[in-house]
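Dock adenosine monophosphate; give full complex structure.
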Amino acid sequence: MRIVILGPPGSGKGTQAAMLVEELGVPHISTGALLRNAAKRGTALGLQAKAITDKGELVPDDIMSDMIEERLSRVDVANGFLLDGYPRTVTQAKSLDAMLARLGKPVQEALHIDVDPELIIKRIAKRAKEEGRSDDTVETVRNRMRVYAEQTAPVADYYENQGLLTRVLGDGNKEEILQRILSVLKVNATID
Ligand code: AMP
């Protein structure tokens, strides 16, 4: 199954994606994690991207599309994938559609995790302590929320217009949210 998971920063989409792939047996492809790994390894692309992610801005679409195209060319995606953090702009969504159309394997399901902004600030403060992510400062988070509203929220509309989007309530504990997502996938026959 080929699934895209969307949600504002701190919506818990990364946590849910990690739990979901355990259930679904497909690879978890997180572009944020790919960028953080590249920065840790000190590659030119990683360092260039870190300067952008630390401000809460988006890495340019062409860089991201090349990165995802390379990732989707690997053999482990034969049975599907869960994309977390990509696409983040409508341009990326169109480029993903074109890539998958060439493979004859379109996106089957787009999930959007809905959360209250108050909860987001609390969760991100907690994550900043636990994971020490350099883009989890209050100022950067504010910027990431603005960037999300301006550039990524339209991606949810893009999938909604294709009849592929389901919104899932992201409050409660992570097990409850996971069960909500699994029932959506069952109802939509994305999994049996
Ligand atoms: P995430 O781990 O998904 O929250 O991503 C962390 C940061 O990486 C984002 O705030 C962006 O700066 C950058 N990033 C991740 N995925 C993308 C993408 N698809 N397009 C542009 N920037 C991205």
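Observed: The pocket of adenosine monophosphate is lined by residues 9, 30-32, 35, 52-53, 56-59, 64, 85-86, 88, 92, 135, 144 (CB under 6 Å).
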